[in-house]
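User: I'm curious whether this sequence folds into something compact or stays loose and floppy. Could you predict its structure so I can see for myself?
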Amino acid sequence: MKKCVIIGSGLGGLACGAILAKNGHRVTVLEKEHQPGGCLQCFHRGGVKFETGMHFVGSAAPGQTLDRLLRYLEIKDRVQLSPLDKEGYEVVSLEGRHYRLANGREAFIKQLSASFPSSVDELNRYYDLIERVAHASSLHQLSALPIDDVLTASYLLRSIDEVMNEIVRDEQLRNVLMGTLPLYAAEWGKTPFSVHAFVTDFYQQSAYRIVGGSDHIARSLIETIERYGGKVVTRQSVSAIVCDDTHAIGVTTADEKLWEADFVISDLHPKRTMELTASSLLRPAYRRRIAALPNTVGCFTVYLKFKPHTVPYMNSNFFGYRQASPWNCEQYTEANWPMGYLYMHFCNEDGQRYAESGQIISYMRYEEVEKWENTRVGHRGTDYEAFKKEHAERLIAAVEEEFPGLASQIESYYTSTPLTYRDYTGAERGGMYGIAKDISLGPASRVHHRTKIPNLLLTGQNINSHGVLGVLVGTLVTCGEIIGAEALGQIGR
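Assistant: Here's the prediction. I'll summarize afterward.
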């Protein structure tokens, strides 16, 4: 039995806590905020509920990857899922023309071949490649045995656009297939094709919303931790990771308390983790590399409260683009923002008829709000409020082009910027998905779960890959350092 102190209660921290507690270790999760969960957090405004980060999940049908993970974490029966429309769980709109993405190979190809009848062979080739790359990863398939990690590695080194240009000749079809790229903030010439393959395969198998919000996952993971004797302590800001000459001995919090540990796991951004220890075991070159890594773009979100019984519940996610291509929306100008957005509804109950609330999300660079970075939430000034109001109205107007009458159905709205995201979730510069994957940086763009401090480990979205699946499979690697790789075999059965 080892004492394991985990810094941060995001999905990575809580999942590590559940796995380690379940395997007999003494777990303490320290969270600086009053509400645990990181991007799993939800909040209430105007009597309705909103999510902050995890809006829908995939591969959760019986026997699929997320289903197996949820069962292993012992939260499957405590988290209710509502399936999205299998015939169009995602809708991509390019200049007003809509394309529905369906679950499953046959339905997916049938839907798109109606618009691209001469591209059936290319759609099959595309789907084959997505499956080959995603299923070649032993990690993502929860297999204790190697599958074809060489294939996975090769597509880690090739950009999405390079591969797509090879396998799909029709430019419009390529743009449709890339219409969901905000799910991982893909950048032209930089983001590896493997990222696209993992995310696409994850949702292609099945797609669901979390009934009542993603904070149910956080609460359920905390229940698992506590059931096995662990604890999650909020309002405990870690001020330092304490090390001797060879390893970490624990962490101190703002109240100067020492929390002794055999292992320390950080769910923080790696840059923040480096700042918490002055240990010479972390070499200057390593610290500089971590500090220099690029982060994904941030976002501006409008949270909509609808007038009662006015907006039919939309059982799909809508990706809207005001131009022919979904690429380079992060390179907007003041004049053409927003170039694209994701619009979706909150799921209060399975079989819902009317939406109570919804969200519109669009890219926003941190530089837009940088002048207010030293202010506090709720005290940023009237110019900041005017900035948010202007952008909210522009974003609502953009969605109104696709959904006429929407504005008249909104009772009230609320907003967040990259600063909000930074302050509530700890995201570096408010980035949507942490450290950006960039093939131009090669292996240097990837952060390993191990550090040169032998018992200091890393977890979270910066370590493996983005999203719920990337984070959860990453926790298996991190926890494997403590409980052994056989954990993969347990989950795979």
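Summary: The mean pLDDT is 93. Residues 100-205 form one domain.
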